[in-house]
Amino acid sequence: MRDFVWPAGRVDCLHRQKNTRRRHCGDTGPECSGAPPRERPPLPNRRLAPERQSCITSPSSGRGVATGDRESVMRSVGAARLGLFVGVFAVLAASQASAGDQVLRGAAPAWVTPSTETAAAPPAAGDEAVRFLLFDDQFHAEPEGGSNYLHYRAKVLSPQALPLVGSISLNWNPIYEDITVHQVTIIRDGESIDVLADQSFQTIRREQNLEQAMLDGRLTAILQPAGLRVGDVLDVAYTLVSRDPIAVGHPEQFINLNLPVTIDHVRYRASWPSTLPVQIRAENNWTPLPVRRRDGQSSVEVQLDGVQPVIVPDDLPVRLRSPRRLEVSGYRDWSEIAVSLKPLYDAARQLKPDSPLQAEIERIRALSDDPEVRAAAALRLVQDQVRYVALMMGAGALTPASADETWQRRFGDCKAKTALLLALLDGLGIEAAPAAVSIQNGDGMNARLPMISAFDHVLVRARIGDQTWWLDGTRSGDRKLADITVPGFRWALPLTGPEAKLEPLEVQPRTVLDADTTVAIDASGGLYSPAAVSGVGTMRGDGAALLGGQLAMVSAAQKDQGLRAMWNAQIGDLTITEVGSSYDVETNILTLTMKGTVKLDWPGTGLIPPFSTYRPITAEARPDGPFKDAPYMINHPSYSRQTMTMKLPGNGEGFRISGGEIDRTELGFALRRAVTLSGDTATVQITLRSLTSEVSAAEAATARAAEDARPWNPPRIFPGTYTVSETDRAALAANAPTTAGGWLDRAFALSKIGDRAGALEAAGHAVDLDPTSSSAWANRGVYRFWMGDKEGATADLEKAVDIDPSEPVAMNGNALLAMADDRYDDAVIELSRVLRQKPGDDFALRNRAQSYVALEQYDRALRDLDTLIAAQPTDVSLKLLRIRTLGLADRADEAETEMDALAEAHPEEGRVLLNQAALKLDHDKAEAASEILDRALPLYADHPESVLIYRAEASATLGRTEAFARDLATVREANSDNAALLNNLCWTAAKAGLLLDQALKDCDAALALEPGSATLMDSRARVLLQMNDLQGAVAAYDAVLAKSPKLPASLYGRGLARIALGRVEEGEADKAEAVSLAPEVADSFKHWSPPAAPAP
After folding, report:
1. How far is CA 85 from CA 54, 75, 116, 258, 441, in A?
2. Which candidate, 567, 585, 586, places its Cα nearest to that of 576?
3. pLDDT, mean over the chain
4. 507 and 492 in contact (C-beta within 8 Å)?
5. To the nearest whole percent, how much of the chain has pLDDT over 70?
6. What is the greatest pairwise CA distance in the chain?
7. E-strand spans in 514-625?
């Protein structure tokens, strides 16, 4: 007898977990380690550019209070001193006036409006360490200058809050600013204690950004109020006066009142002479700002009680991160800022007649006539030969050093480097202008009021022909203008004069890879021996320059350790023997290399190759609130690629690859994974390229839903039939395991190479080492099942269940026992229990589908197969199983339609064509089958037997007797010692009713090789039936059924013979039992007809 052509490879039930409690359950089978590993991004997929500090800013950018940034009024309660809670950025214009390097004492200015808040605090929440009672910020502008008044009260509620509240830190620029403290008072039990009566501030110069090469000359005054204790209220007030000659007549301030702690009362007030042209703005009109005018003064005021912080998501676009932002500006438009700053750069870019830079200009001019080449050379000179140092003291906060001075010093900040680059481009006749930008807060700048403090960086806008280039002297590694992309600062203000306006910086998707990494694995020595691996990664742009510079500055040992860590983070089970790196300063390309070995894991569900997965791109759902429907920020621009190649054993013979193909856009990224198998080499390549800087909340929700519904489908390599290599055997023989988990790993590997006896022995060692392990008992039980020891298997599986009734390997093993005993209902129960624990378990779904088929519950079988196909949409084997099930369910048309579609999608896959031909034969379409088999034959050049036998069957149906005999003879000549193929020859001839004498010889030859085989005996009985030797057929079938009482073909054949002999009742009983076991069995006998009259 011969059955449907099944896909290569049997589905067994090995479960494997990569943790301390490993699960196995026998032969070759699917991995069942629970949640699939998360996919990983290409190496590397992160921006590596150095974080620049502000190098163009007002001298008063600190607002005189500690280290707060420009936007945040308050930062984390537990992470900083009190100054971080009250730091506000302000730039206040005035003429030059005296300033001091000491903290002054005095009363609050007359323009200050006292707060009406009292010192008494409401009951505090039980988990509060500190309670802020008041935050009062007042800003006042005058034609000659401007001031900020800050008053706060905080109540200490726990000892942990004392270091936080009890350290007052004030920060200011002595060149442009004065700071006057009005009070530092401790309020205890209704009594006010004047701290300044006995203590004073200590002033120090503390360069807080020295490690970023920034010198700002700011002073810090510190005070630790003596005697402060739990229950006290600290009451502090002071005023910062700022005068900036460059921004004279243009006061400005912005503040974000989204404070990170609850404050009982918050007030903000701004006032100015009504004659000053001041604009005011609240972000997204979050609060009304009515202007009040009285006695020639204008003012706005915001008062808030019980202010709770608004939690701002990290992935929110920058323009939305200051929900309580307030702005005050004395600039009417952005051009006024350009008018103020342009003269500074006009002066700084002028070269002295004898400037040494003239020689550099001539050198660059001689390099090329191409202005792009000249501009790139000028940029390289500024980047490479002038180191970055920001001098923010005095006028240096906004005024650039001259080009000649910067060249003589060979250091400078962004302003100085910009002036130097402008001078060089002027000398080369290239149009260029300085352009102010914001590194951190450019997003949304166009919607805000014009302010100098909006900018923290300056670069060059160069124009060559109709092309605009944005050149940044503080970067490193730029070599060609064509490789320079538009910076992601969103907006730039060219400092060109009255016509200046904000220009958008439109960042396009990258066309050149930031990172490109290839890992080559040579597994040609065998599946289970360590595979040689080599890796080459290249980086370009900022990342290359930064990491290349870092690697050049560390010791050889540190470099080796760092590079090994980078590669080990990308590839599991990697043993590195060699790492290296090289940086090409001419091309700004960093190359990282690695050599070593990697241990590969080949579960029944196929090997997921190292370096072939990626991390899903996600945008987490936001809770209800103001940002629920806000856009998500994307890391843009970025472009990376990773490639894995694997050389397979045995020239790749029998290997196949399935799954993993991706080509889609999600969350602003173009993601593509190509998976191919060519000859002996499997290749997986992943590219990830950002397309935009943000996506909408609706797009994010759609992407999340798609990700949740999308099955995990990594690329998998399947070995098919594989002969263990000597290196495999050596690897398995070396280093006997010392743990139960290690022995189960060994059992798994031995089962994979066909050594079931060795696998059983190894599982026995696991049981001996850990007799309390349900996994060890269950796996040994399954190995016993595969060895034919059903009694031992039953005992081991019962022991596993006694230890842990929820052991899934034991459930799978019991399902195998049930299926072997035709107890398919029991098998379904066991497998369903597994699936309740692990809904996607491959083994359980496959075997439950087969059990449903045996129970003729085809719809349920198809549901399980559809679940598997959804998870593994490129798995051809599963689709073949589905087609076979459709046929059994009497849905022949659907089966044929799906088979034709599968063949069209895989025209070069032999097993698909072979199954398509078999199905055509079943549907009496012999001509179509013959044509398909002709196309399939070249694909089976090394092993054409199956194709030739099927083609012979088609030829018999078409009446091509000579072709029938010729194909069978070809198989016979090459396989005279192969009992299985001789049996197929016998069976095919018997079904066709042709060459029956030769068929009988083929069966006898097969039986000589395998005496007593029930399958071979069944085929011989069929030949006798076809010869109408009815007595002989019945006798032969009796012998078969004595060995295998439930063999459907023998029951049916004997039934036909008995009926032909007149034993109708017995014959019909045989046929009925056969059909109950295999409904399709009658199809094999459709070419037999009884003799004209019953034999006597």
Report:
1. 21, 6, 21, 11, 20
2. 567
3. 86
4. no
5. 86
6. 135
7. 515-522, 531-540, 574-584, 589-598
Q: Summarize pLDDT for 487-497 with one digit per residue, the tens.
A: 999 999 999 99
Gap between the Cα atoms of 66 and 222, Å rounded: 9
Average pLDDT over residues 687-691: 96
- Decide if 269 contacts 338 (C-beta within 8 A): no
Residue 72 buriedness (CB in 10 A; 0-12 / 13-18 / 19+): buried
The whole-angstrom separation of Cα 1026 and Cα 1032 is 11
Greater model confidence, 267 or 712: 267
H/E segment holding residue 182: strand 177-188
- The lowest-confidence range among 402-416, 734-748, 856-870 is 734-748
Report the C-alpha gap between 864 and 813 in whole angstroms.
19
The predicted structure's pLDDT at residue 782: 94
Token pair in block for residue 1049: 């073909």
Which pLDDT value is given to residue 118? 55
What is the DSSP-derived secondary structure letter of residue 282?
A: E
Strand 263-273 and strand 130-142: the pairing is parallel
Q: What gap in Å lies between CA 703 and CA 636, rounded to an integer? A: 18
**What does the DSSP 8-state code read for residue 1084?**
G
| Token code pair at residue 342 | 């342009």
Q: What is the pTM of this model?
A: 0.68
Using pLDDT thresholds of 50, 70 and 90, give the confidence band for residue 753. low
Task: Using the predicted structure, report yes or no on whether residue 414 has a pLDDT greater than 50.
Answer: yes
Q: How many helices (H) and strands (E) does the chain have?
A: 31, 37
DSSP letters for 336-393: HHHHHHHHHHHHHTPPPTT-THHHHHHHHHHH-S-HHHHHHHHHHHHHHHSEE-EE-S
Say if residues 792 and 778 touch (Cβ distance below 8 Å).
Answer: no
Give per-residue pLDDT as tens, 1053-1063: 999 999 999 99
CB burial of residue 958 (10 Å; 0-12, 13-18, 19+) = middle
Q: Which residue has the tokens 């900040």?
A: 413
Between CA 878 and CA 882, with CA 881 as vertex, the angle to 5 degrees is 90
> Dihedral angle at the C-alpha atoms of 376, 378, 383, 387, nearest 10 degrees?
180
Average pLDDT rounded to a whole number, residues 831-842 = 89
Q: How far apart are CA 381 and CA 359, in angstroms?
A: 13
pLDDT at 1079: 79
Closest CA to 142 of 329, 279, 276, 280: 276
DSSP labels, 957-992 = HTT-HHHHHHHHHHHHHH-TT-HHHHHHHHHHHHHH
Take residue 1 and report the two structure tokens written for it.
């007898």
Q: Which of 247, 248, 249, 267 is nearest to 257 (CA)?
A: 267
Neighbouring CB atoms inside 10 A of 819's CB total: 19
Question: Which residues fall within 8 angstroms of residue 771, CB to CB, at 6 or more apart?
Answer: none
In whole angstroms, give the CA distance from residue 725 to residue 244. Answer: 80
Give 505-547 pLDDT, tens digit per residue: 999 999 999 999 999 999 998 887 889 999 999 999 888 988 9
Check the CA dihedral 1058-1064-1067-1071 and report its sign. positive
| CA distances, 897 to each of 75, 117, 321, 900 (Å) | 65, 81, 56, 5
**Three-class secondary structure assignment of 728-777:** HHHHHHCCCCCCHHHHHHHHHHHHHCCCHHHHHHHHHHHHHHCCCCHHHH
pLDDT confidence of residue 42: 35
Q: Which two structure tokens, joined as six digits, stand for 846?
A: 């496959």
